[in-house]
Specification:
This protein is α/β, with parallel strands linked by helices. The protein has a single domain, classed as Alkaline Phosphatase, subunit A. The chain is 30% helix and 16% strand.
């Protein structure tokens, strides 16, 4: 028996209406993460000089640029373990550098890599290394968990793997800025070059740059600072290939582009340390024109709210139409489901390679508080990777031994823990004047406020940093770092530091 015509029309109208109302019916945007290695606000759009970053500066002009974004750790593996799960590494036991690679460790129940959440929601996930035969990314994971199954879809390292019949989440991990260390032969080299150093255009020259005042004014310091800035320019050029191909394929206006750094600057007092330049990272989000822009995002907008990199994870899931998971520490900061702004951004540093330091940090809008729990030298402690790859370390040790360091560089070499540090990042952006002992009422109030905030955070998030790793876990790192980078003469007792 055939249905009456009016009933067929009604069925069609109801079905059409249901499809229109279904939030999954409309194509969700692609999402592209461009992850910079070891940099802070070192782009033209952030006011940096002696860099050439036209591709990322274009993103900033067409998107929203954030100025107060902080990594949860000043080194790659713990930081990545946090923003790949949306939870602090100190809560998930992924806080020591390159830990749990061979011990059967699993993430706590309910803690899931963001790529798995996106895959389960229908996204194709890719870790891109090549575009049109050109190497654009490292394919880096460097996560302190290895037993959660494949992080991305298989065979997803080339641009050609991206589908057109469903949305994709693609990541490009920058080649720069990094020393060229992964041949494991650094100990044999007279100097470890930067990745891509021989092809980088010298937009920065030693004579033109101004290194931070916590370093001595020395030719080697200037040379290394210029190399660092030229590495940032090289990163922009490599990312430019990805952005050009995205545009050429007609995908730019269907793809949310999120650029950010994984941790701070690749310089001795940057990466590994909880100072501002070790934690503050760039973040730029460009929204595609074919999709309604969430509240808070607009071309050319500059946003000064305090953010943590784990907020990028929560917000990325929101861009994909997914609710924030119940365990997440990260907050959604854009769109209809944006949460209340952060007041504080927290960070933690624990063992990095063979170097054991327990340090905690909290930023608010103006002040930055750092607490070092570990006894002994801080900046001057031994880390074989830094001693071999960072020529500035050798210069400072030599000048210190000869009694030729003065001012902030000398104080940095003499610094020991345990200690507290408080900095006014507005008037002292290089953090060279410690206000922890100041009697100024504003400084006393800031110190008390941030002490309390840090203590509360450590308790509420179950900070596991107070639980030391067993010596048998740490010892192999000492042997590995010696084989990889060698041990400096001053540490072997041949030269006094």
């Amino acid at each position: 028996m055939r249905a009456p015509p009016f009933l067929l029309v009604l069925v069609v109208l109801v079905a059409t209406g249901l499809r229109a109302a279904d939030p999954g019916a409309a194509r969700r945007p692609n999402i592209l993460w461009l992850i910079g290695e070891n940099l802070s606000h070192d782009l033209g759009s952030y006011g940096a000089r002696h860099v050439h970053t036209p591709h990322l500066d274009r993103l900033a002009a067409e998107g929203t640029r954030y100025t107060r974004v902080f990594a949860t750790n000043p080194a790659c593996a713990p930081s990545r373990s946090a923003f790949f799960t949306g939870m602090y590494q100190t809560s998930t036991d992924t806080h020591p550098m390159r830990s749990h690679r061979s011990d059967g460790f699993r993430l706590p129940s309910g803690v899931i890599p963001a790529t798995h959440r996106l895959r389960d929601a229908g996204y194709f996930t890719a870790n891109l290394k090549t575009v049109d035969g050109h190497r654009v990314g490292t394919g880096k994971l460097d996560l302190n968990f290895v037993n959660e199954g494949p992080i991305y879809h298989e065979n997803s390292d080339d641009w050609s793997s991206l589908p057109r019949d469903r949305p994709f989440f693609a990541v490009v991990n920058a080649e720069e800025s990094e020393y060229d260390i992964y041949d494991r032969k650094s100990a044999e080299k007279p100097r470890v070059e930067w990745v891509g150093e021989r092809e980088h255009v010298r937009h920065a020259t030693p004579a033109a740059v101004t290194p931070p005042p916590y370093y001595p004014d020395h030719p080697v310091v200037r040379e290394e600072w210029a190399r660092y800035l030229n590495s940032v320019s090289g990163m922009d050029a490599r990312f430019g290939r990805v952005l050009d191909r995205l545009r050429a394929d007609g995908l730019e206006e269907d793809t949310v582009i999120v650029f950010f750094g994984d941790n701070g600057q690749l310089e001795p007092r940057g990466i590994h340390w909880c100072y501002d330049n070790g934690l503050r990272v760039p973040l730029i989000i460009r929204w595609p024109r074919r999709h309604p822009a969430p509240a808070g995002l607009a071309p050319g907008r500059v946003d000064d709210q305090i953010l943590s990199l784990i907020d990028v994870t929560a917000t990325t899931l929101a861009f994909a139409g997914l609710p924030k998971p119940p365990l997440f520490h990260g907050r959604v900061f854009a769109g209809a489901h944006a949460e209340a702004p952060r007041r504080f951004a927290f960070a933690a540093r624990d063992r990095i390679d063979e170097t054991v330091q327990r340090i905690r940090s909290v930023h608010e809008e103006r002040y930055h508080y750092i607490r070092t729990f570990t006894s002994g030298p801080t900046f001057a402690s031994l880390n074989r990777y830094k001693e071999k790859c960072f020529p500035i370390m050798g210069v400072m040790r030599d000048l210190h031994a000869r009694g030729e360091l003065r001012g902030p560089p000398l104080e940095l070499m003499q610094r020991t823990g345990p200690l507290e540090e408080l900095y006014d990042t507005v008037v002292d952006p290089h953090e060279i004047r410690n206000l922890a002992g100041s009697r100024d009422p504003a400084h006393v109030a800031a110190l008390g406020r941030l002490r309390a905030a840090l203590d509360t955070w450590m308790v509420e998030t179950g900070d596991r940093g107070a639980i030391p790793e067993p010596p048998e876990v740490v010892a192999p790192f000492t042997a590995e770092m010696h084989q990889w980078f060698g041990t400096p003469a001053w540490y072997r007792g041949e030269v006094r530091p």
